Known about the structure:
- The complex is a heterotrimer.
- Chain A is 34% helix and 25% strand.
- By secondary structure, chain A is an alpha+beta fold.
- Chain A has two domains: 2-167, Uridine Diphospho-n-acetylenolpyruvylglucosamine Reductase, domain 3; 174-285, 2-Layer Sandwich (Enolase-like, domain 1), CATH 3.30.390.
- Chain A has a five-stranded antiparallel sheet.
- In chain A, a hairpin with a 2-residue loop joins β4 (58-61) and β5 (64-68).
- Chain B is of the alpha+beta class.
- Chain B folds into two domains: 4-79, Beta-grasp domain (Ubiquitin-like (UB roll)), CATH 3.10.20; 88-157, DNA polymerase, domain 1.
- Chain C is of the alpha+beta class.
- Chain C has 20 helices and 29 strands.
- In chain C, β17, α10 (344-350) and β18 (360-368) form a beta-alpha-beta unit.
- Chains in contact: A-B, A-C, B-C.
- The interface between A and C is medium-sized, with 19 and 22 residues.
Amino acid sequence: MRYEAPSSLERAVDLLATATGDARVLAGGTDLLVQMRTDILNPELVVDIKHIAELREIKEEAGGFRVGAAVTGAELNEHPKLKAVWPGVVEAANLIGSTQVQGRATMGGNLCNGSPAADSVPALIAAGAKASVVGPNGRRELAVEDVMLAPRQLALSKGEIVASFLLPAQAKGTADAYLRFIPRTEMDIAVVGCGVCLNVDDRGNIGRARVSLGAVAARPLLVAEAAEALIGSKLDAAALSKLDAAAGAACKPIDDKRGTKEYRIKVAGVLARRAAEIAYQRARTA
Amino acid sequence: MAKHHITATVNGDPVEFLCEPQETLLDALRDQLNLTGTKEGCSTGDCGACSVTVNDRLVCSCLMLAVEADGKSINTIEGMAQGDELHPLQQKFLEHAALQCGICTPGFLVAAKALLDRKPDPSEIEVRYWLAGNLCRCTGYDKIVRAVLDAAQQMRGA
Amino acid sequence: MQEKVKDGQSSPFQVVGTRPVRPDGADKVTGRAKFGADLALPGQLVGKVLRSPHPHARIRSIDASAALALPGVKAVVTRDDFLEQSSEFIPAGEMMINYRDVVRNVMAREKVLYEGHAVAAVAATSAVIAKEALRLIKVDYEVLPHVIDVVEAMRPDAPVLHEDMRTAGLEPAPTTASNVAKQLEIGHGDIAAGFKEADVVIERAFTTKPVHQGYIEPHACVASVSEDGQADVWVSTQGHWVVRAHCARLLGWDIGKVRVTAAEIGGGFGGKTVVYLEPIALALSKKARRPVKMVMTREEVFKASGPTSGAHVRVKIGAKKDGRIVAAEAELKYQAGAFAGSPVQPGAMCAYAPYDIANVKVVGYDVVTNRPKVAAYRAPGGPISEFAVESVIDEIAGKIGIDPIELRLKNAAKQGTKAAYGPKFGPIGMVETLEAAKSHAHWRSPLGKHQGRGVASGFWFNIGGETSVSLGLNEDGTLSLTAGTPDIGGLRASLCMMAAEELGVPLDKIRVQIGDTGQLGYNFLTGGSRSTFSSGMATVEAARDVMKEACRRAAKLWELPEDAVEYSNGGVRPAGPNAGKHAPMSLKEIAGIAGKTGGPIVGYARINAAGAAPSLATHIADVEVDPETGKVSVIRYTAIQDAGRAIHPSYVEGQYQGGVAQGIGWALNEEYIYGDDGKLQNPGFLDYRVPVASDLPMIDTVIVEVPNPRHPYGVRGVGETPIVPPMAAIANAVANATGVRFTDLPMSPPRVLKALDEARAKGTAKV
Lengths: 286, 158, 767
């Protein structure tokens, strides 16, 4: 195995684009090293992207935030402004693993690991985040919900790296929340994850909504029907009930060692309601 | 496979070692530097027995490649006591009997210190959630949490 | 909050019952203490095991030639490197094992019987080369159908694991092969008559899944065999004399040629009372003529070291309206894994042991399946059977309308009660723990929405066993204490305290170590909650030996008869009519005259500790259930248990709390998850879900003391009983909160939600 730690994005892209064997990006390593240790992966080349400045910064941009793909969950948590504006995203990133894992894990890695159960992804999708992707043919923007296609399959071609995420400028009255269900209180992979972002006017009406579900399909979902269930409402019981149903209907889950199909469908609805309530409260008090 | 030459600081002392690219920091600490206080419980980041701090950040050393340690400042359990004087956390763990077999203890001490260095007055819940990545099979965590809270109180008062 | 219930008297002890810092503490909080994987010997090789990918297959051939030829590989071992063993049962902790099975579990011979079963092993100069060498070993398997469920395995058409297995305990002896290794029955009285008398009868079926002891330290050892055949093993183990015996036997070496040193052990709970890597490491070392270090990965620990049984249990209890239990029956089907020896016998013996019931019958089946061979796990067999019994008792209490603690008090076993498994109890603390539960603030505290409370009791026998201790008086009056039962969590502190109490010397004048097998006579392993009891008893005897010898030496010096000198206040003085004739001599001064009065002063004890007494417990658990997700949270827990005498109360409390945490995990989230392909899907701490710090509340403890009259300090073993009540306490609490009774463990959220939904449809749910 060869280890490279380039200090420029161009060099990183070039290493990955010209690699002959299996080449992997190393950000936090909290998935990659586990996969190497358990012989799921045996890369010939590992490209450590943590020495590339752009990937490690959080900058305000266009009224929003550009968050480097290799910023750790712990660092996200320590950024006072980001946490105040996007608590759902920051909390989601800080639910990954343990305190130790959050000290290394990144949102770029969480997305590109290609697990449908990634915790930060539904929060990013609900936020309307865009991934800035750099490759041998230049830079392009992708909605986060379009990056993952299926388990371990990304819409990235050889040599492309997710460099950063743009969290958009928020209209007044916008707030997000992320909840996940796990059997313990920490340390488990999400059985269901739900990110909700709402924009609420001064009279309490929901004007815009985005609802994203994780761990209930082959990739994290943006559930338009769930958003529609909320738009125009004051998050009353009827809207919550429609939200619950829409969330459940969007699931295409599997039975596995973490949950059954029926369980995931039920809990998706429960979490959607609870996350929406938190986002709504935050939007009203923001 | 050519080895990498790594220079770092461990517990305040400059160190150098050679390592293969796929070796973890945990492997290097234990096998190259003979610092066996940091333990291997699972190699998948699920138990926290390998906890160290890297540039003051609490991490699992099994989830870092040894090569990534180059130029970094690493603190392990071996650096926690100051000469003969145990750190208040170490002392409180002993007084509260917060260890039985002791295999998880180095990881807990390093993790707890990382908490108190940031948050001198944590609540019981905050202590439990911060330490959720450190598994203990012997104690049921009760005395560990008490020891951490007691050490925090002492450190605030001193 | 920790409380102690005493018999009303102030403590007669100076040291026993206090809470000093443990003598091995500094090493453990600084990382200095050396566990199994912490030793490195010059020139050592890395040993790795090739494991079966199939749950059941015949081994046609093994060709390791390519592996041996790989540069860096120094030795390969297979089944041919271990001696065939004929059938012989021996005790292993509180279970029996058979050497014929031990050698096959260490390395497969005719067949592989579970995914992960060891087939071959290599020693190489690096882990990378060792891994590559394993890939080069060619094993020709004839894959066979497998069976992993205990009920399936009992069917007459099930795939048979051992063609020569005939169910023991049946008359007449069967002639056809079976997966039922043994059938047993215990009991007394006439249950048919008993049930006829009953006003209320409840019968329920329960299932539990295999759970692993979950020690954080994987198995690890270093073995070194020299050219003259002397062998050394460094290993984290619960019993190094047992390791020595097993290795010598499997390899055909003299026991005396093998020396085993116990490293610090990072958890065992029964799982480190057997051998896995040690005979392999020795065989490799002998061939390679270099030390060999072997450490299991976490995946290997789950796949190839014994969990405890999963089981099917049926319980039927009959009681009168006034709460007296008149008949109790149980049928236990325990899964042994690949070789016979589940803990169904102790499970059967414990099931009704806390109670005085006139008519009891328990039938047990020991069933083999294509899973790793089970090993002892903290009160082996007890938590499973007692979970079922304590759940039904709870239901009976509800049906009759009696408080569940009152019901247990009405039927509690006491001194003189004849247990269903045979003996008459001496003094035991069942009533005391129930009374303490009844009067505890927890029992009276209010519950909130979606919350429920459950109570359950538990029993474990505890054992004594062969024990040797040496206590040397050093030239300066300090003492060196050498014991032989590995310290799994506070033993050295307790032994020092008992010695200090006896001798009247300060604690820090006694240095204690756990000796290797060359330094002491035989010691049975640390298990059965025996080490504080047995090594404590031996330490007291050795201390009294020293005290007696000190008196003898002074008597010699003073020219007095031996019985004219007494030991007092950490020294000796003339007694009786001679009192005052000579100034007392401290132990230090005695040490100074040792040479000229006959030689070194060393106290020895070599005993087969008898008189171990049961420890009873009653636990109270509060849970909160999320009605929309089925998640059960434990919000309050109180563990009340009889310790006989708590030598070091903090470590007694620690045993209570640790057992409770494991029981909660067993109740709520821990289970081995298999696919139909017979392969383990969760061999790691990510999906094998042990409780984490945020999952648990503080665990309050109450130490009850009903001294054991057979021990000099009244000690009862305490380590195992704590894991017995939690599963039922939690299940009873969940029933109280939801109106739904769970009979299948674990009560994980998907199962709970499903049951709640079904109950809601029927109108029987409370949430």
